[in-house]
Amino acid sequence: MPEAYDVSGVIGIVDVVDCVRRHSSPWKHGPSWGWVLANARPLKTRDCKGAVGFFYPKWE
Predict the structure, then answer these.
(1) H/E element holding 16?
(2) For the chain, which residues make up each domain, given as ranges?
(3) Under a CB-based contact definition with an 8 Å cutoff, are residues 40 and 16 in contact?
(4) Beta strands 9-20; 34-47: pairing state
(5) Which of 5, 6, 17, 38 could form a disulfide with 45 if both were Cys (CB 3.0 to 4.6 A apart)?
(6) Which H or E run includes 46?
(7) Which pLDDT does position 54 carry in this prediction?
(8) How far apart are CA 17 and CA 35, in angstroms?
(9) pLDDT tens-place string over residues 11-55
């Protein structure tokens, strides 16, 4: 990982357009569910502690 790589923050936003069991993407593995994403847009990095699943960021 590069020294100047931003971590522990929100770096962009996408639209979730589907949730599938099978997909041709090389990123999709196994029988678990996967999100199909579209319209990715970068944002200025904002510090954000992550969480498992959906969550609401606590921004100051």
Answers:
(1) strand 9-20
(2) 9-45
(3) no
(4) antiparallel
(5) 6
(6) strand 34-47
(7) 79
(8) 8
(9) 888 999 999 998 888 888 888 898 899 999 998 888 888 788 877
